[in-house]
Design a protein that fits this description.
The chain has about 325 residues and is an alpha/beta fold. The protein has two domains: about 1-125, Rossmann fold (3-Layer(aba) Sandwich); about 125-285 and about 315-335, Dihydrodipicolinate Reductase, domain 2. It has nine helices and 15 strands. It has helices at about 15-20, 35-45, 55-60, 75-85, 100-115, 125-140, 165-180, 285-300, 310-325; strands at about 1-5, 25-30, 50, 65-70, 90-95, 115-120, 145-155, 185-190, 200-205, 215-220, 220-235, 235-240, 250-255, 270-280, 335. The chain has a nine-stranded mixed β-sheet. A six-stranded parallel β-sheet has the order 3-2-1-4-5-6, sandwiched between helices. The radius of gyration is 22 Å and the shape is globular. It starts with a strand and ends with a strand.
Amino acid sequence: MTNMAVIGCGYWGPNLVRNFSALPDCKVKTVCDADPSRLSHMKHLYPHVSTCNDPASVINDPSIDAVAIATPVRTHYNLAEKVLQAGKHALIEKPMAASVQECNGLVSLADKLKLTLMVGHTFLYSPQVHAIKDIVDSGELGKILYVSSRRLNLGLFQKDINVAWDLAPHDIAIVLYVLGEMPQCVSCQGKAHITDGIEDVTNMTLHFPSGVFAMIQSSWLDPSKTREVTFVGTKKMLVYDDIEQTEKIKVYDKRVEVPPHYDTFEQFKYSYHYGDVYSPHIKQAEPLRTECQHFVECIQQGIRPLSDGHNGLMVVRVLEAASNSLKNSGGHTQL
C-alpha cells in the first residue's frame, strides 16, 4: 500500500485525490492547501483524509510515501526538492518547473536518491494518443509533413504564467511522444490583451531534424473550446478531436500527388486523392486514472515512468525556448 499526499486542492488537485483514492493499492492520507474553504470541501468529500495548510506537515510525515504537487508553477521546484530530500516520491503537475535549470536540479536529485519523479503529462496516458503513435509508426499516414495543434478556450486566466506555459505543455508532450524526436529550434509569437506582460494568445512553431514542422496555437481568449491535433502525411491525414465524445480520432484517406514527369507547364497538374474516412475503435479509459495507477506501479515496482523527469525537462526546454523567442519578436531559438 502506497500512502499518498496531495499538495494543492484548487482546480486540479481534487481530480488527483479522486483518482488516487479509487486505486486499491493506494491510500490518500493527507491533503494540503492554504485555503481553509478548500480543505473543508475536501474533508466533506473524503472524511477519512487528514488536512493541513502547511506543506512541511506533509514533507515531515514519515508515514507518507509519495506526494502529488498541484500548485502554481513558481512553487513546483521548492516543493518538489523538499519532497525528494525527505525521501518521498514526487508527481508534479505540468509544467514540471519554471526553468530548465530547475528541472535539471530535480532530475539529478531524484536520480541520486533513486526516487520516482513523474510529471503530469496526462495525455501521454490517453488511449487515443497511444493509438495515434501506433498509426504514425506503422507508416499508414506515410511520411509526416506537418502537425497542427489548437488548444483554445475562454479562460482560465493565470497570473504567473502565460498561455503557452499553461496549455501548450499538453500539445508539446503529444507531439514529442508521437514523433519521437526533439525540435531543433522553436519560434513563438503572442500578445497580452488582458493582463500586461502575460500573453493570452500564442502561436508556437517547432522545427524537427526529420523535416517535420509543427504549429501549436494556444489561447485563453477564444469563444469556443477547441482541443484538436492534426497530423498530415504523404499518404493520409489524421485528426484527433478530444472534444468529441466517441469518435475522437478520424483517419482521412486524402493526399495531394505531384506528377513525377512533365515537359511543359501546361502538362503540370496536381492530383487530389479523396478516399474513405474511418474512426478506429479505441477502448475508453480516463487518462488521469491511468496516470495515477502508473505512478503507483512505478513506485512499487521500481520502473521508470513514461512521463518521467527527463520527459518533463524536454517539454520545459521547448517552453523556455518559446519564451526566449517571444522576447525576440518571434525569432528562432535553437535548442
